[in-house]
């Protein structure tokens, strides 16, 4: 089952696309290249522009940031991870189960936290924690301690490079401020900047000659860094990928508590847990007119929206089917037609006036074979759909809102409803659906807020070598409706909703019957 | 039609469904329990809770899905379980295994998913086909979850339109079967 997805996708074209295709004689080009095709569920409807807007055509802003683990809301702008106790496994990203135990064995008396993954066999144990602190803070401190040499070296190199770049710039642009440059490499300054013996060679280099700094020599500098790297032990550590692959091999063999051999890859528990990433609630505005299209409640666990202009609540929902909840035939013969039912449902509580159109002869971009041609016949161009009753609370109102092609015989209520829709039964009893279409020549069937229109697809040209043909069905809809009470309260200037759009359905692959 | 039991509250339960400990299972109404669905209510419960499985209205359980209250620990000789609460307008696909502590409302769980012990799924979520939600994982509202942890597990934002879509689909599924 394709839950939540519609048979038809909507064309979302930007202003630039429309401008580009204005005056273009071929409608096909505009439909196929004039924008992006989006699922109806992924679209907003802008009440000011009277257009569907995809996420790409919207500006968003973060309304709230929260951690799904501890329910905390974070206000600070630069925070992207939970700063409290929510940690995840660095190997698989799953939640870690945390155990705390008192440890009074050594000189220090405090607690030791053990974190074990609920999915894989990763585990991590903290040192003795004396002062109460958030777990993420404890882990950050451990991380800083473990990598202090590494961090200090990076800090040293980056500072020294900054000095060097600055000096080169001055030399290049002829700014003779050598005294200023000298301050950069002044030993006292370097000392206050935290440069210690770890970067002694580099400091020495800086001190040795200002002229040398001014003449930038890339090869020499690379060599210098290499020399420095070879002197520093932290580069002996294996890469993270190597550690992870080793960890997985440990999981496969069954245990991660083996004794660590000198010089071997560190145990799994040496990899620190990660802080959990925060989730966000976003509000969306139309990129063109800046109207608010979605404004969520600030409470992260609420599903309510203060403002929402979802396309699915406004645009008619279209679907293609065969009869009796079945799919339409997927075989087509040259100069023979396939009958498909187009169902249109009105999601609004007010009537909807529709004008339908399609491209009568499909070729080129709509078919998988460019030499083929398919003719589409829509027997009716204008339809008015009644308003939808408020969401049915009982089964009867639910079943009444379901178009006949979707009814099944699996439940009593559906079977009864199918029998009650006698007109439909008459048609269904007819063996040749073509003659039924001729009889009605308009609406196949209609209900409170829905209607079914027959659609005729005729294969008029196909090369002999083609065995299968994929058909894309484009439809143009021109819609007019009153505003619902909800829309009136939202302070719209217009009294009606008028909009038009292109929609397309991938009808799938039809097998071409060789019978002529 | 004789394969189904229809209750006064509108529940449709397949005769081939396996429901154990029915005195500890509460179904609010208009729910569909398809064939080979297993609701295991007869597990030893920890704490003071009396009901082991609570299901809201308009929930649909596809063929072969299993709901077992989550394990919360060992109580000596036997494993203790906690209650599982399932909200309204939920659709559970075929062959799903549910061990969650809580599932909100308007949640779609596609086929062949596994929800680990004590996981919590909030409202308006879609769990894609074959997803494994690890134990104790909390899925916030409007999430589109897919994949297997350690391989391709992903939690993305779900458009808010799905709230309406899922509710309508759950209602329709109940009347259409």
TrEMBL record, chain A:
The gene is Piso0_001060. It comes from the Eukaryota. Its main location: cytoplasm. Keywords: Acetylation, Coiled coil, Cytoplasm, Cytoskeleton, Isopeptide bond, Phosphoprotein, Ubl conjugation. This is Dynactin subunit 4. It comes from Pichia sorbitophila (strain ATCC MYA-4447 / BCRC 22081 / CBS 7064 / NBRC 10061 / NRRL Y-12695). Belongs to the dynactin subunit 4 family. Subunit of dynactin, a multiprotein complex part of a tripartite complex with dynein and a adapter, such as BICDL1, BICD2 or HOOK3. The dynactin complex is built around ACTR1A/ACTB filament and consists of an actin-related filament composed of a shoulder domain, a pointed end and a barbed end. Its length is defined by its flexible shoulder domain. The soulder is composed of 2 DCTN1 subunits, 4 DCTN2 and 2 DCTN3. The 4 DCNT2 (via N-terminus) bind the ACTR1A filament and act as molecular rulers to determine the length. The pointed end is important for binding dynein-dynactin cargo adapters. Transmembrane segments: none annotated. It is found in: Cytoplasm, Cytoskeleton, Microtubule organizing center, Centrosome; Cytoplasm, Cytoskeleton, Stress fiber; Cytoplasm, Myofibril. The keyword Coiled coil applies. The keyword NADP does not apply. One of its GO terms (cellular component) is stress fiber.
From TrEMBL, chain B:
It is found in: Cytoplasm, Cytoskeleton. CDD domains: LbH_Dynactin_5. It holds the Pfam family DCTN5. InterPro entries: DCTN5, Trimer_LpxA-like_sf. Keywords: Cytoplasm, Cytoskeleton. One of its GO terms (cellular component) is dynactin complex. The keyword Cytoplasm applies. Belongs to the dynactin subunits 5/6 family. Dynactin subunit 5 subfamily. This is Dynactin subunit 5. The lineage of its organism: Eukaryota, Fungi, Dikarya, Ascomycota, Saccharomycotina. The gene is Piso0_003009.
